[in-house]
Amino acid sequence: MSVADKTRKKTGGLGETVSVILQALLLALVIRTFLFQPFSIPSGSMRPTLLEGDYLFVTKWAYGYSHHSFPFSPPLFSGRIWGSEPERGDVVVFKFPPDPSLDYIKRVIGLPGDRIQMRDGQLYINGEPVKREKVGQIDNPDITEMNRPVDVYRETLPNGVSYDTLDLSPNSIGDNTREFVVPECHYFMMGDNRDNSTDSRFSVGFVPAENLVGRANIIFFSIAGGASPLEVWRWPGEVRLGRIFNWVE
């Protein structure tokens, strides 16, 4: 084989490698934009449903697509295409309205036109109290972030969706609010950790439909203790095996 033949072979091999890498990157971009996006839980606002260190997949097509569906939210168009409304009780990733560079995750409590209010820790939707019953206590700091037992209440929304909420303290700042009237094409979001959640009661405000990124579906990995998934030497003591492949409800 001549030197020229060897050079063409090396060049051809390099070109094929670059082509495969570019195709893989393009496929990953398509999957992330239109199908699934990984998301990590950065705070305790959705405890006990979601914990810091949970890693989950978000379904991107659940509510259609907006420009926030794309990486870096390029202003390609306004509104949503192939849009559909979230259901009350869905756990949703969305762009923080005051700063769309930030991702938040909360539960949809109020739909357009709803009246939402908290009275003495009780959730009211359109003037009616949401079913709420105490189901016990949790005494596990990994779940509650508290070094004492915490009361757990089961809420059931008008459409039948049920989930657990934490009550860290009585008469907290979010336990009594004004009545919020949800505007058209907006949603009212709340965290399940009611006394430790920055949500629509506070600075988040009403979330525009355009800001929805997707619905949280399944936890694919979970690690405690502030560990990174890359710190494999910490897996034996920190990985929460019981949470892996749990559906988000």
Describe this structure in words.
The chain is built from three helices and 14 strands. It is of the alpha+beta class and 249 residues long. It has one domain: Umud Fragment, subunit A, CATH 2.10.109.10. It has a seven-stranded antiparallel sheet. The protein has a four-stranded antiparallel sheet with strand order 7-6-5-11, with no helix packed on it. Strand 9 and strand 10 form a beta hairpin. The longest helix is centred in the N-terminal third of the chain and has 33 residues. It starts with a helix and ends in an 11-residue tail after the last helix. The relative contact order is 0.19. The model has no long low-confidence stretch (mean pLDDT 90). Keywords: Hydrolase, Membrane, Protease, Transmembrane, Transmembrane helix. It catalyses: Cleavage of hydrophobic, N-terminal signal or leader sequences from secreted and periplasmic proteins. It is found in: Membrane.
